[in-house]
Structures are given as structure tokens and as C-alpha cells.
Amino acid sequence: MSEVLSQLGRLFVQSVPTVIFVFLLFVILERLFFRPVTKVLKEREEATVGALARARAAAGSAEAKLREYEAALQAARLEVYRLREAARQESLKAREGKLQEARAQAEGLLREARASLAAEVESAQRELTSASRGLAEQIAGDILGTASPSAAAGGPQT
Predict the structure, then answer these.
(1) What is residue 53's three-state secondary structure?
(2) Dihedral sign for Cα atoms in the order 62, 68, 69, 74
(3) What is the maximum alpha-carbon separation in the chain?
(4) Position 44 pLDDT exceeds 50
(5) Given 80, 144, 151, 157, which residue has the most CB atoms within 10 angstroms?
(6) Angstrom distance (rounded) from CA 125 to CA 139
(7) What's the CA gap between 16 and 20, in Å, rounded?
(8) 154: left (phi over 0), alpha (psi -120 to 50) or beta
């Protein structure tokens, strides 16, 4: 057993330089390779995460501006509709005023025409009445053979 232990001791002593070499290699690789690579990967991850965060913030800002723009556009549309409706109401009032004025003018002309027509009818009835009296007297005088008072006054006799 002592032989086995001595062999193990020799193997251990022989492996010490390899262990030291591996340990030194680990330290050197850690400092020269793994730390810079880890640092670059962290920076890359931070840049990626930062870019994603900035992109999300920009998208949120753009979305907020879009909602703001849509609200302003809707308000502008409502204002245009309100102005258009006000202009329409105003034109309808003006049109209604002109129609009332035209109706009043037409009614005035109609009253004047009726009054003129009534005067003409009355004048025509007076003329017809006087002419019919004269004709009636003349016919009566011709039938009865008597002189009518208008014939005696110098009217023609048949």
C-alpha cells in the first residue's frame, strides 16, 4: 500500500505543474478573452435593450401624437360641419326672407289687380246698365210707336 501511496504522491507532484499551468491559463483567458467578450456582450445587450426601449418610447410617442392628430382632425371636422350648418341656416333665413318679400309684393300686386278689376267691372256694369236702359226705352218706343224721351230730345228715330 505504501507503494501505491508513493506512486500517488509522485503523480500528484507531477500533476502540480499541469494544474498550475491550467490555473494560469484560466486566469489569462479570463482576463484577456472572457472579460472583454463578456463586456462586449453586455454592451451589446444594453445597446439592444436600450434601442428596444427607445423604439418602444418612440412608438408610444408616435401613437400619442397620432391620437392627438386624430382628435384635432375630428375637432376641425366638427368645426367645419358647424360652420357649414351655420352658413346653410343663414342662407335658408335669407331665402325665407326673400320669399316673404316676394309673397308680400305678389299679394300687393294681386290686391291692386283685384281692386282695378273690381273698378273696371263696376264701370262696365254702369255702362251696361245705362246702355240697357237706353236700348230698353228705344225698343219700347219702337214697339209702342211712341216717341221715346231720348228721341224727342233729338235722338235718331227709326
Answers:
(1) helix
(2) positive
(3) 197
(4) yes
(5) 151
(6) 20
(7) 6
(8) left
**Cα angle 39-41-44, degrees, rounded to a multiple of 5:** 110
Residue with cell 501505491: 4
- Burial annotation 13-32 (CB, 10 A radius, 16+ → b, else e): eeeeeeeeeeeeeeeeeeee
The residues spanned by each domain of the chain are 58-141
Contact assessment for residue 118 and residue 128, using Cβ atoms and an 8 Å cutoff: no
Which residue type is seen at 101?
E
- pLDDT tens, 51-72? 999 999 999 999 999 999 999 9
Contact 148, 138 (CB under 8 A): yes
**What share of the chain in percent tops pLDDT 70?**
92
Write down the mean pLDDT value for the chain.
89
Q: For residues 97 and 116, what is the distance between their CA atoms, to the nearest angstrom?
A: 28
| Closest by Cα among 143, 142, 92, 29 to 151 | 142
Residue 149 confidence (pLDDT): 54
